């Protein structure tokens, strides 16, 4: 799944990152000028992510919601900053009705997730709880942000209420 590894190196531009991402068969995230290759993570991380997608699929089979695995990028709807990514890769997402994608430099990015799930590992915790929380909660389409820890038994569920907070 999507555990962050050590950065490839620093001082990349967003354009350099997008060129690498478009040409690569691996996924990467761009943070503060550094490009991080996303690894397969631990077996526990992978098992949790697979179980989440499978359970979402089972629970939503006859509904208008669709689970999407961790291979899909989600758009960062915040104002562009040179130190933040244009999109991120959650471990799982769920969309209501039809998924809407936007092409960013040739990469299809999901715009309208309803639920975003991150499986937290020691190497991804700071971003999942910090910057990704800010990115995900700024997107009004996202109603639920689920954080599942891979090394302890803990789940945190953030949700947007009817007033939007």
TrEMBL record:
One GO MF term: endonuclease activity
SUPFAM superfamilies named in the record: Restriction endonuclease-like
Domain Putative restriction endonuclease: 15-161
Keyword annotations from UniProtKB, A to Z: Endonuclease, Hydrolase, Nuclease
Top-level taxon: Bacteria
Xref: Gene3D superfamilies: tt1808, chain A (3.90.1570.10)
Name of protein: Uma2 family endonuclease
């Amino acid at each position: 799944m999507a555990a962050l590894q050590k950065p490839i190196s620093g001082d990349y531009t967003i354009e350099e990152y997008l060129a690498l991402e478009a040409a690569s068969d691996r996924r990467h995230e761009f943070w503060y000028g550094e490009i991080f290759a996303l690894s397969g993570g631990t077996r526990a991380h992978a098992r949790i992510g697979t179980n989440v997608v499978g359970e979402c699929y089972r629970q939503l089979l006859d509904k208008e919601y669709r689970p999407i695995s961790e291979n899909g990028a989600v758009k960062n709807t915040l104002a562009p900053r040179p130190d933040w990514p244009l999109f991120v890769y959650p471990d799982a997402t769920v969309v209501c009705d039809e998924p809407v994608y936007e092409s960013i430099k040739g990469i299809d990015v999901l715009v309208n997730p309803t639920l975003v799930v991150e499986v937290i590992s020691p190497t991804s915790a700071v971003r999942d709880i910090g910057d990704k929380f800010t990115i995900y909660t700024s997107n009004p389409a996202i109603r639920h942000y689920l954080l599942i820890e891979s090394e302890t038994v803990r789940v945190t569920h953030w949700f947007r209420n009817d007033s939007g907070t």
